[in-house]
Write a structure and sequence with these properties.
Structural class: alpha/beta
Bound molecules: 2'-deoxyguanosine-5'-triphosphate, magnesium ion
Shape: elongated
Distance between the termini: 65 Å
Strand order of the largest sheet: 6-9-10-3-11-12
Number of strands: 12
Length: 602
Amino acid sequence: MKRIFHYLKPYTFLAIISPLLMMGEVIADLCLPRLMTVIVDCGIAANGDVSSSKLGSTVMNILYGAGPYTSMQVIVTFGVLMLVIVLIGGFFGVSCAYTAARASQSLGNDLRRDAYSRVMSLSIEQTDKFTTGSLVTRMTNDITMVVDFTEMFLRMLVRAPMFFVGGLFMLLTMNVSFGIVMLCALPVMAIMLFCVLGRAIPLYSTVQKKLDRVNSVVQENVTGARVVKAYVSEEHEGKRFDEANADLMDTNFKVQKLMAVMHPVLTVVMNAAIIAIIYIGGWQLDNAFGTGMTTGSIMAAITYVTQILMSIMMVTMVLQSVSRAMASSKRIGEVLDSAPVIVSGDVKESKDDIAVSLKNVGFRYPETHGRPVLHDINLDIKRGETLAIIGATGSGKTSLVNLIPRFYDAVEGEVFVDGVPVKEYDLEALRHKISFVLQKSELFSGTVSDNIRMGKDDATEEEIQMAARTAQAEHFISGFSDGFESYIAEKGASLSGGQKQRMSIARAVVRKPEILILDDSTSALDLATEAKLRASLESEMKDTTVIMIAQRIASVKNADRIAVIEDGTIRDCAPHDILMETSATYRDIYNSQMGNGGQANE
Ligand code: DGT
Ligand code: MG
């Protein structure tokens, strides 16, 4: 909660002015019943005789001099006065709503901006831990809760207490017995509020958790819609969604059941108080002269009772909102407080003959146990060299290259880029040196050029075309009706697997990186296209250090060196011909691919 107020700081002026404006509206509302009393008692009941009302005689005296006045004069005068006060109150009310909305929405905007930039700076392991669904809920629904609370808080901060205290004061000054009725009603309500809210508040954080779950399921199924359809698992996934949805409903229902008690009980208490006031007032009118009881004051008392009870309802609303906002702000706080595990260093520039070097590197994924994914990795890659990595699936190839741009940090040993430990690099500078083509191509909705330009913001048309040519993508792009300006659907859904891979490669080469990492990025290409791609990469990117993961011997054969990974470590590392002689693992892979008539593969 402290954090919310911290975020309200830049809008202190609005946050202060808003409750002050609300005071104007409340004062106006509190005045109205008093004026009404004069109209009823003096204008209607006493035919314009204002002597019984101090307020009536003072106002009439100032406006028209000494009486007598006609009943119409009193009614019209006080009627107009009420109208003016209503207008003034309305003006204050609107201004308060405006300033409160402005302050709370600006706060929401700032909070969303900070949460977003924090989410973007989180390391991959942290994002995985929060889960995407939960992060989305936190950024949207939770922030909305906080914004709603702030707005309500600013508006109710003075409204509820002022109505309460002001109404009680007005009642007591009009007639002590009215005030006593109210004081009897209050403890009943206090007990009920305590019981209901005490049980409802803890449920709010559960509600948000269940909402996370629903969001996660929806997100998974919408992104994986194709798989769901392919496996005709709509029913199973539907069931999973129904479960999460029903769970959310149950918890929400529990809260609402508790809340449902509140409104009727408050209404019953309010009506009982009104009946008591009418009864006491009526009795005093008939039997106890000299108490100053009039029809008008009974009417005014009823209005005040309603106002006081309304103020209590407002408080319950605020308390509900507080409890929700507390649960939500805690969740937002968790995001804002999670310091990125991967912290940027400050080295911006470095050059060395050894482009990438891994020394005694060991790695396991955070919070996993058992055998490490990588161990005892020693590898030096020279500037301009092409190093291929081959190995069985799950042997740790992707994990190894992930350490170079610091998607993860090595657990043991050290990774160097251009002679400097990656941990000492400015993250942006480090990642600018490297272009990474992920194993699973990720494209974004936008045009072909937009997607390639992600690699280099200020790339010219020529550079983009050149990159596409290098990546062997120009041919199919020019086949699109709008060429480079053709629109690509979300996640590249409108492209084939091989087209996506070549688009990703074009995006990587456009910036002419110092180090190019291709993680199984040609797996969907036919051998002829792959060969052309390799040749063009070789001629266009002579100075670039290329690290290329592949499954096929044909893809790695021409590399300067080939590292063979097995069980999380590098078994052998040498050119193809030498490996054929020295490495049993490599020969096994070779035979499995080239044997059985697989010669055609080459
Ligand atoms: P591939 O792409 O199928 O040819 O296999 P590799 O060689 O790229 O394998 P890799 O590095 O993705 O996975 C090595 C091991 O690490 C494997 O047992 C799965 C595990 N692993 C991979 N990614 C993650 C992750 O994000 N979190 C955890 N906890 N484990 C992971
Ligand atoms: Mg992999």
